[in-house]
Amino acid sequence: MKRFSFLVLVILLLTSCAARNSRSSNEEKKQYVIGFSQIGAESSWRERNTESVLEAGKKANYKILYENANQSQTEQIKDLRSFIASRVDLIILTPIVETGWKHVLEEAADANIPVVINDRLISKEDSHLYKTFVGPDVPIQGIQTADFLKKKYKDVQEPINIVEIQGSKDASPAISRHDGLVEGLKDDPRFHLVASVHGDFMLSKGREAIKNVTKSHDLKQVDVIYCHNDDMADGVVSYLEETDIKPGKDITICSVDGQQSAIDLLKAGKINCVIECDPNMGEKLFEVVTAVLEGKSIPKENYTTGRVFSEYSDLTKIDKRGY
């Protein structure tokens, strides 16, 4: 009888330990829920960026609640409030514009939900409302464009006129790519920015933008067209090809992103310079997300890198872009 009681006690102890170990294992395997607010799908670059984030999140075993705001800040704010109401563990925000985020990010802070900003920045006065940023150092892209132009026109003495096709109004890449170009050319008085219009990072609107420029400027007096992304550059090239102006020959075309379409135009001599902005930032993003959730110390900015492809590059060494 005593032996039977002893065996029962041993079994109960083993069962209890197994249960505790099981609970501990389940707790260790908790699947974090991440809210991801993307601005839209305005370009091949953006589509690939979204895929990269979702793929990396799945690989890291996070549950992702994904929302596409279709170019609307109002919708993005609604999406963020939905994430807060759902008590997600962390929010990834790709902000369509720099300003207007204060109240909703304060709501996330009040709910103890950390926010990681991806790809685009918000205004500096609200920077205390997010943990960290993952994305490109965008002003450098404008400076790299300026460096290319100074090299291309190093032997030219007369004024060099530039038309700029910006991205969306108030979007941080549009602001920073403009500021970078101005900074890079400020010490060279030959360069003149004669027109700057918005094309919303879209092919059709890039084409429309350059067409509108012709109403006030003779494109034959323009030396450079600087496009804030490749889709708009595609639109500019398609428009110029309907005129007697040869893109890449009569007018220098510069662009940012590094999509396959732009590299193809570069190889064809219709674009002269493409600054890479790599959309494949998902893996780096989730390394940072994991660090935030684990309470680790991380830098406020986590920059991705990019290359410069131009008419001076060995274009045969450029791999297929995948976007």
Describe the 3D structure.
It is a single chain. This protein is an alpha/beta fold. The chain folds into two domains: 127 residues, Response regulator (Rossmann fold, 3-Layer(aba) Sandwich), CATH 3.40.50.2300; 150 residues, Rossmann fold (3-Layer(aba) Sandwich). Helices cover 42% and strands 19% of the residues. It has ten helices and twelve strands. The chain has a six-stranded parallel beta sheet with strand order 2-1-3-4-5-11, with helices on both faces. Helix 8 links the parallel strand 8 and strand 9. Helix 2 crosses helix 10, helix 3 packs parallel to helix 4 and helix 5 packs parallel to helix 6. The N and C termini lie far apart (75 Å). The N terminus is likely disordered.
Q: What about the largest sheet?
A: 6 strands, parallel
Low-confidence stretches: 1-15, 17-27
SSE ordering = HEHEHEHEEHEHEHEHEHEHEE
CATH class of the largest domain: Alpha Beta
Q: How are the strands of the largest sheet arranged?
A: 2-1-3-4-5-11
In CATH, what is the homologous superfamily of the largest domain? Answer: Response regulator
CATH topology of the largest domain: Rossmann fold
Task: Give short descriptive properties of this protein.
323 residues, alpha/beta, Rossmann fold, 6-stranded mixed sheet, 10 helices, elongated
List the helices and strands and how they pair.
Layout: H1 2-28, E1 33-38, H2 44-59, E2 63-68, H3 73-85, E3 90-93, H4 102-110, E4 115-118, E5 132-136, H5 138-152, E6 160-166, H6 172-185, E7 191-198, H7 203-213, E8 224-227, H8 230-240, E9 252-257, H9 260-267, E10 273-276, H10 282-293, E11 301-304, E12 308-310
Parallel strand pairs: 1-2, 1-3, 3-4, 4-5, 5-11, 6-7, 6-8, 8-9, 9-10
Antiparallel strand pairs: 10-12
